[in-house]
Structure formats: structure tokens, C-alpha cells
């Protein structure tokens, strides 16, 4: 059985890696000052943050049209028997539901929509693992079982640098944003039951990042090999410094660096930092 992997743009897997592993990507959409862009195709993360910095209105985001899923699935069905389609959490986007709806009308291949219940490179971990297993000839059931294993040990925490994005996006009240800004609070966020919720409120950016490091340490000190990704919103140098520091502390953890692209960056804002990890 030939199996292929599909994911959406919010996994933020670099194009050259997608090509090597034969991962197909469905883009989400961001609207900036009335202009529509397909994430990871029409606009890069760097260009996005530049546009937002100079713009007056907060961008908006939307899920891919169901027709794009159908078109891609039908094309892949000509060559593959199974399609594993891995998407960002159904609690924050209708993208997964779009994949489910499209899967019902596809003939010639069995489509397996998979709700990552998370986003960004944490979601990317699932797609990368699935693609490697597909190239090894593993069955869809074997791949999905492995993804569930990864999910059991997946951890991800995000620090928001600017509360105004959460407030303007309807995820934080104006009063909370004002108080948080005055007190220099950097809320730590994580996913619970498919949605983003506060984990802790931390004073100062430095203390917030230290707290995330402590949470990683709780798992890393168990001695099992982990894979982890530092995720940043236009903070390349900060991410590189943090990676070096964490690599020295936890030699049993394999660290990489990823980013918050336009869609997720719309809601978290420039300066956000995150860390996700799971067992290898």
C-alpha cells in the first residue's frame, strides 16, 4: 500500500524538507489590509511581520476552501492508496473539519484526516514522522498508532510578548490586556482539549522563558531522548541563543528552531516565543 502525507501551512515545515519527504501542503489564508495571501506561498513570515508592523489593522485569517482539499486529494488518489492528512487543532480552526468533509467524497484512495490538537512545529512533528514511516512502507494504521504515541508525550508552551494581539483578536479582554501590559505580564499559554488556554502568568519575558525551560527540564531529566523545537515570532537571534543554552543543559534533547508564521503570528504577535517537545 502506497501512503502519502498531507499537512497544512501552520506546521511550518520548510519547503525543502517537505519536498524531500514528499509532504504535500494546504495553505491557510491571511488577509492584510484587504489583500489576501496564501501562507507559505504568497507571503513569508519575515514579510508578514514587516507588513503588520507598518499596518493599521490587525490581519485576519481563514481556513482553506474545501475545494482545495478535494483537488489535492483527487490528484494524490491517482498515485496513492492512502492519504494521511494532518492538521492544526480543530479547537482553533475549521481546517481539520474541511479535511474530513473533503475525505468523504474522494474515490480511489482512503483519506485519514488527523487532528493534531495543536499547531506549528508540534504539528510538524506528526507530519515528519508520518512521512518517514510512509516512505518505509508502514501501513496507515501503524502510522496513526505512532502519531497517537507522540501525542501522549507532546508538550508545548508559548509566551506572548504583546498582549494587544490577543486582545484585538478577541482572545483577551481590553481590561486584561491593559493590566497585563502595565504589570509587564507575559502569559504562558498551552493547549488543553484542543484550545489555547493560559497556563501561568509570569512577570517579565526572562522569567517566562525560564519557566518554560523548567517545564522542559522536568521531562528531560527522566533521561529519555526527546526532540524539541524552539518557535519564535521574528526573533531569530533570541531563538539561536536559547537553543545553545538549552542544548548545553540537556544533551539528551535534540533541538531545532522553527517559527510562528503569518496565521499563528496574527494571534500571538511579534516577539512570541515557544518550545515544544515529545519523545523520539
TrEMBL record:
SUPFAM superfamilies referenced in this protein's UniProt entry, alphabetically: DAK1/DegV-like (SSF82549)
GO molecular function: lipid binding
UniProt entry tagged with the keyword Transmembrane: no
Keywords assigned by UniProt, alphabetized: Lipid-binding
Annotated PROSITE patterns: DEGV
Pfam families in the record: DegV
InterPro entries according to UniProt: DegV, DegV_C, DegV_domain_contain
Keyword Translocase part of the UniProt annotation: no
Domain of life per record: Bacteria
The protein's name in its UniProt record: DegV family protein
